[in-house]
Amino acid sequence: MKLGVFLKLFRTQSFEDAVAHVARQGVQTIEIATGGYVGNQHLKPKEVLGNPKEINKIKKVLEDNQVTISALSCHGNPLHPDKQIADQHHEDFINTILLAKELGVDTVVNFSGCPGESEHSLRSVWVTCPWPTDFLDTLTWQWEQKVIPYWEKMGQYARDNGIKIAVEPHPGFVVYNTETAIRLCEAAGENVGINYDPSHLFWQGMDPIACIYSFGHRIYHFHAKDTEIFKRNNELNGVLDTKSYKDVVNRSWAFRTVGYGHGQELWKEMFSALRTVGYSGAISIEHEDGIMSTQEGFHKAVKFLKEVMITETAGEMYWAK
User: Fold this and answer.
1) Cis ω on the peptide bond leading into residue 130 (within 30° of 0)?
2) Which pLDDT does position 73 carry in this prediction?
3) Which of 210-215's residues contact partners 24+ apart within 8 Å by CB, and which partners?
4) Is residue 245 part of a domain?
5) 192-196 and 164-167 strand pairing
6) Looking at per-residue confidence, does 316 or 91 come out higher?
7) In the UniProt record, does the keyword Isomerase occur (predicted)?
8) In this structure, what CATH number is given to the domain that contains residue 82?
9) pLDDT, tens only, 266-275
10) Which among 149, 165, 52 is positioned nearest to 102, based on CA atoms?
11) What gap in Å lies between CA 288 and CA 295, rounded to an integer?
12) Between the CA of residue 79 and those of 71, 127, 218, what are the distances in Å?
């Protein structure tokens, strides 16, 4: 496995400066935002596609810093009921796949998306319970009329372009847990797999090790992000918490830098499980910790992961020290 980072952490720096900065900390591979909700601060597909000069410029920065690209990421909602949003996020998705092909990157990360409750909706509707039965009717309509037809087409498009799509299970979208992720992958085909981010599973009460074994070879990319559960608030209000991520003191849980929600033993077990199912790709640091600054969270994550990751050197696996 390779130590990586989602470069959006350093969105205020130029691409050249951001890559040089993370490389000095021992990062081997980077994930680059290319659209959707995360924007495209470092790499704008429309400006790079079909432009050999820009492509070579990017490759030169990577080569100079001995860094590769693990994935291009356009986390968006191409199924949004607002056609303007859906069309923009779909365009970002298509352009990201084409750019990945030009750059020689094999993986694109995205969300599954979430439609509304009907053709007349203005906003997405995430169904979380089966009753009243309106909810199940909505869920059936979403999957049969919107989700599966779209992802069947995108699975074929990915195959045609030789790209793997890593869908990130995330509450608020139709794919948020193990069974919904597997359902999507089975419908879309082998070129659609999982961007595994344990932080979204922790607060739902899921077992990250069991999920890894369930996903198996479908894990195409990995986000290193943790979650801390705040016992008192959770006991009062449960995990379905709509308060702002900034309101950490009152929330039931919060995203944390790796190691600040769960300790080394669990993360070691996770990396062992990843290796067992055949994953040897990026461990991409994603910082969304509302308690730590970006720099502090990044440096602590690098230190923590260097101590617990399984890496590979000269064909031999060892515990990184």
Assistant:
1) no
2) 98
3) 211/178, 212/270, 212/273, 212/274, 212/277, 213/273, 213/276, 213/277, 214/178, 214/182, 215/178, 215/181, 215/182, 215/277
4) no
5) parallel
6) 91
7) yes
8) 3.20.20.150
9) 999 999 999 9
10) 52
11) 12
12) 22, 15, 22
What residue numbers bound the domain in which 170 lies?
Answer: 2-228+256-319
Number of domains in the chain: 1
What residues have CB less than 8 Å from 315, skipping those under 6 apart?
none
Task: From residue 295, give the alpha-carbon distance in Å to each of 292, 301, 304.
Answer: 8, 10, 14
- Report the DSSP pairing between strands 68-73 and 282-285: unpaired
Question: Is residue 14 assigned to a domain?
Answer: yes
Q: Does a structural domain hold residue 217?
A: yes
Is residue 294 in a domain?
Answer: yes
Q: Tell me the C-alpha distance between 273 and 279, whole Å.
A: 9
Residue 321 has pLDDT above 50, yes or no: no
Distance of CA 83 to the CA centre of its chain: 24
C-alpha torsion sign, points 255, 163, 182, 126: positive
Residues across the chain: 321
Question: Residue holding tokens 């440096």?
Answer: 299
H helix or E strand, kind and range, residue 235? helix 231-237
Span 116-140, pLDDT tens digits = 999 999 999 999 999 999 999 999 9
